[in-house]
Amino acid sequence: MNIVLGVGGGIAAYKSALLLRLFTEAGHSVTVIPTQASTKFVGVATWEALSGRPVTNDVFDAVDQVNHVRIGHEADLIVVAPATADLLARAAGGHADDLLTTTLLMARGPVLFAPAMHTEMWQHASTQANVATLRSRGVNVLDPAVGRLTGPDTGPGRLPEPEAIFAAAMALLGSPAPEALDTAQTCEKATEQPESPAVKQGSLSGVRVLITAGGTREPLDPVRFLGNKSSGKQGVALAEAALAAGADVTFVHAHMEVAAPAGAKLQRVETALELRAATLAAAASADVVIMAAAVADFRPSNVSQGKIKKRDDTADPIINLIRNPDILLEVVAHRAAANRRQLIVGFAAETGDEQGDARSYAEAKLQRKGCDLLVLNEVGPGESGSERVFGQDSNKVQILSLDGANPVQASGSKRTVANAVVALIAERLGTT
Ligand code: C5P
């Protein structure tokens, strides 16, 4: 396949050299178009040596070949990594002031942006508006990874790892890269964990699947929030499995530690109330709803406009909480009210105690919520003493059915568990 790799002017440009290697080693032909600014970080010679092709970002080079038209037409996929705030703005604005932006306007194939910038720049209203504009046009914009940035700062803004961008790119080309997508799965083979077969291609063809993922954050003041340990990994794995099965996926996600899945319609939310609004709206036209998000059950009853001050002359603050609506319950109620045919899957992170084991708590939850399937994770410390589920790459679940069918067990990487959930959904819909 012909891939165009656009490189923006950020320090993360050096990581795109590794991304380029992943593409060429997988047999793709890559044309690199670095922006002028990016060549201050990585020079043209590096790109020419690694791609084995001439590299320019000047529309007036080789004018006889009308480069932007040829490259844009020939591209099966354009990947821009790192995508700076400036590059996102220029792409959203339809600018055509260098070879990369003119090529983006010429291209008719899929486009994937992997942003990287400081947290403030990423969260700035202008950048978010540009990202929303691009996404509304069907452009795939990954969420940046969370972690250490160039200076002393930490937060969302890191370029996703080259392997993650590669996997997202391959998914857009319709040829998933199993090893890159799921390195955890490869490791598990060595320890002989049971594997669930890959999803059957086309088993959810044309099925509209809504997936919620990540952990909501409930603000206390402009700086602080109440959050939870959800990494979003299981939700992303579910989306990738559903996409691989041919589904049309809408992915509503709160805070995650991983990049959102490429190929899904993405909607980013922050709080439980925002998640509720986005979920109820999207559920109205979904055939399947998978509620994998970790939704805060409570939110602070008061959100302070200013930062709550630490003072020696007054008592420390007491946080009062109010209950958030149960979105899953509402989705089930709306289905009944609209007499809609819809399969609803809930998740339950449970621990056992002296009154019952995790399974009995999950059975009770399934009855209470009224969803069709409930995926039970036993959370908390495992035998080694470390956390079993949150933030981990693997998972062990039982999928319980409201109709009393025998629970389905699945364990292995989160993608393996996702494959089992998707296979059961296809079986229930009769689309296998
Ligand atoms: O009640 P509990 O939080 O254990 O239920 C978990 C399931 O319910 C998950 O599917 C979660 O996404 C969903 N949920 C919800 N709204 C809430 C709390 C949980 O939809 N307020």
Could you give the topology of this structure?
Elements (H helix, E strand, L loop, with lengths): L1 E6 L7 H11 L3 E6 L9 H8 L15 H8 L2 E7 L1 H8 L6 H8 L4 E5 L3 H5 L1 H12 L3 E2 L3 E4 L5 E5 L3 H11 L5 H4 L1 H8 L17 E6 L4 E2 L5 E2 L6 H12 L3 E6 L11 E4 L3 H12 L4 E4 L6 E3 L20 E3 L3 H12 L4 E8 L7 H12 L3 E6 L15 E8 L6 E6 H16 L3
Parallel strand pairs: 1-2, 1-3, 3-4, 4-5, 8-11, 8-13, 11-12, 13-16, 16-17
Antiparallel strand pairs: 6-7, 9-10, 14-15, 17-18, 18-19
Helix pairs in contact: 1-2, 1-8, 3-5, 4-7, 11-15, 12-13
The chain binds cytidine-5'-monophosphate.
How many H/I helical runs? 15
CATH class of the largest domain: Alpha Beta
* Count of strand segments: 19
Q: What ligands can be seen in this structure?
A: cytidine-5'-monophosphate
Radius of gyration (Å): 23 Å
- What name is given to the CATH topology of the largest domain? Rossmann fold
Helix content: 25-40%
Structure report:
This protein is an alpha/beta fold. The protein folds into 2 domains: 2-175, Flavin prenyltransferase-like (Rossmann fold); 181-305 and 314-429, Rossmann fold. 34% of the residues lie in helices and 22% in strands. The chain has helices spanning 15-25, 44-51, 67-74, 85-92, 99-106, 119-123, 125-136, 162-172, 178-181, 183-190, 233-244, 272-283, 327-338, 358-369, 414-429; strands spanning 2-7, 29-34, 77-83, 111-115, 140-141, 145-148, 154-158, 208-213, 218-219, 225-226, 248-253, 265-268, 288-291, 298-300, 321-323, 343-350, 373-378, 394-401, 408-413. The strands form 5 sheets. It has an 8-stranded mixed sheet with strand order 12-11-8-13-16-17-18-19, sandwiched between helices. Strands 2-1-3-4-5 form a 5-stranded parallel sheet, sandwiched between helices. Strands 6-7 form a two-stranded antiparallel sheet. A hairpin with a 6-residue loop joins strand 18 (394-401) and strand 19 (408-413). Helix 1 crosses helix 8 (162-172), helix 4 packs across helix 7 and helix 11 packs across helix 15 (414-429). The longest helix is centred in the last third of the chain and has 16 residues, at 414-429. It is globular and about 75 Å long. The relative contact order is 0.10. Bound molecules: cytidine-5'-monophosphate. Residues 272, 291, 293, 295, 297, 324, 326-328, 346-348, 365 line the site of cytidine-5'-monophosphate.
